[in-house]
Amino acid sequence: MDKRRILIADDNAGDLSVLEKVLEQAGYEVITARDGRDAFRLAVENRPDLIILDVFMPKMAGGLVRLSLKEEAETSEIPVIFLSCLFSEQEIAGQDIMFGDCLRLGKPCERDKLLKAIEKALGAAAGLAGRGKT
Q: Is CATH 3.40.50.2300 the classification given to domain 5-127?
């Protein structure tokens, strides 16, 4: 089975490096972006299995990246997890217009909690794909 591909977008180089290392050690293929515009472009070009977005990034905020991806047929079904140190998980939960039903995690996030959230998002996406369209 091919490795699952995850796109991580975060403007903090340290956070991006840690996340990349954690996910690669967990067996994922990782693509990284340092701003929202690159995240959108890389998602369209690579169609990852999952996207992890910081909320506030240069050139395009994470919420706008998600909304833009939902408008594209090729990327509309890719699950997104928001990961941000700027909000608590409870504060992020109140902003459903930008974040929809995406999983939301606060930073710092424990490794095991992050990996469980990823598996949950990937499992939910596989379940939706398995049902097919009528």
A: yes
